[in-house]
Amino acid sequence: MEDQTDVLLIVACVIESEYGSFYAYPEVTRAAGYDTDSDGMPDVWEIAHGLDKDDATDRNDDMVGDGWTNLEYYLNQVAGDYPAFWLPRGSQMLTGVGR
Question: What is the dihedral of CA 82, 84, 85, 87, to 10 degrees?
Fold first, then answer.
C-alpha cells in the first residue's frame, strides 16, 4: 500500500534519474591567500586585527579578554551583529569580508 510519502519519493527518483541531481550547486573557490591557515578568518581580517594569518590556533584566542573567541568576533562582525567598540586600538572595522 502506497502513501503520499511513497508517491513523492518515487516521483523524486524518476525526476532525478531523468534530469540529474536536484542540487546542482556551483563550485565556489577562493583566491590563494584568502585564508592561509584555514581557520575561518580571512587573512585581510586577521592582519587588520593584529592576528597571525599563518597560525590557525589564534581562532580560539580571545583578543579582547571577554570570553569570545577571535573567530566569534569575525563571524559576528560579518553578520553585522557586533559593534566596532571591541576592536583593538589601531584596527579598522571591515564589513562584508568573507561574503
Answer: 100
**Distances from the Cα of 31 to the Cα of 43, 83, 96, angstroms:** 11, 28, 16
The pLDDT assigned to 28 comes to 84
Write down the domain spans for the chain: 4-86
Compute the distance between CA of residue 42 and CA of residue 51 in angstroms, rounded to an integer: 11
Residue 7 neighbours by CB under 8 Å, 6+ apart? none
pLDDT, tens digit (0-9, with 9 covering 90-100), for 39-70: 999 999 999 889 999 999 999 999 888 888 99
Q: Residue 88 carries which side chain, given as an amino acid letter?
A: P
